[in-house]
């Protein structure tokens, strides 16, 4: 993963404890630590690495386009963009890009 084009954030949804969202252009994913302490250590290490690499990148190289994190069908019951409920006609696999 190109860390100069990577962003990291603490997972804000309550469905996963000690999770970190990692967004990159190649692939975005969630990392789950076993404890809050490890979550903070991992987050800080990844965040600092991204910032260090970005600080040495040319100014015009800071734009970041990231891949969405894949969400299993069982997690969402409506489209994250249009907020429409999934049903027999509006199926989940048609909204994968939305999350």
Automatic annotation (TrEMBL):
<dbReference type="GO" id="GO:0005769">
    <property type="term" value="C:early endosome"/>
</dbReference>
<keyword id="KW-0862">Zinc</keyword>
<dbReference type="InterPro" id="IPR011011">
    <property type="entry name" value="Znf_FYVE_PHD"/>
</dbReference>
<keyword id="KW-0479">Metal-binding</keyword>
<keyword id="KW-0863">Zinc-finger</keyword>
<dbReference type="InterPro" id="IPR000306">
    <property type="entry name" value="Znf_FYVE"/>
</dbReference>
<dbReference type="InterPro" id="IPR011993">
    <property type="entry name" value="PH-like_dom_sf"/>
</dbReference>
<dbReference type="Pfam" id="PF01363">
    <property type="entry name" value="FYVE"/>
</dbReference>
<dbReference type="InterPro" id="IPR013083">
    <property type="entry name" value="Znf_RING/FYVE/PHD"/>
</dbReference>
<dbReference type="InterPro" id="IPR001849">
    <property type="entry name" value="PH_domain"/>
</dbReference>
<protein>
    <recommendedName>
        <fullName>PH domain-containing protein</fullName>
    </recommendedName>
</protein>
<dbReference type="InterPro" id="IPR051765">
    <property type="entry name" value="PH_domain-containing_F"/>
</dbReference>
<dbReference type="GO" id="GO:0008333">
    <property type="term" value="P:endosome to lysosome transport"/>
</dbReference>
<dbReference type="GO" id="GO:0008270">
    <property type="term" value="F:zinc ion binding"/>
</dbReference>
<feature type="domain" description="PH">
    <location>
        <begin position="1"/>
        <end position="51"/>
    </location>
</feature>
<dbReference type="GO" id="GO:0035091">
    <property type="term" value="F:phosphatidylinositol binding"/>
</dbReference>
<dbReference type="GO" id="GO:0007032">
    <property type="term" value="P:endosome organization"/>
</dbReference>
């Amino acid at each position: 993963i190109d860390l100069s084009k990577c962003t990291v954030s603490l997972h804000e949804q309550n469905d996963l404890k000690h999770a970190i969202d990692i967004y990159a252009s190649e692939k975005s994913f969630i990392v789950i630590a076993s404890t809050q302490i490890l979550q903070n250590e991992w987050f800080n290490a990844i965040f600092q690495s991204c910032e260090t690499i970005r600080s040495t990148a040319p100014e015009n190289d800071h734009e970041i386009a990231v891949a969405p994190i894949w969400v299993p069908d069982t997690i969402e019951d409506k489209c994250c963009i249009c907020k429409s409920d999934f049903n027999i006609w509006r199926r989940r696999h048609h909204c994968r890009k939305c999350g």
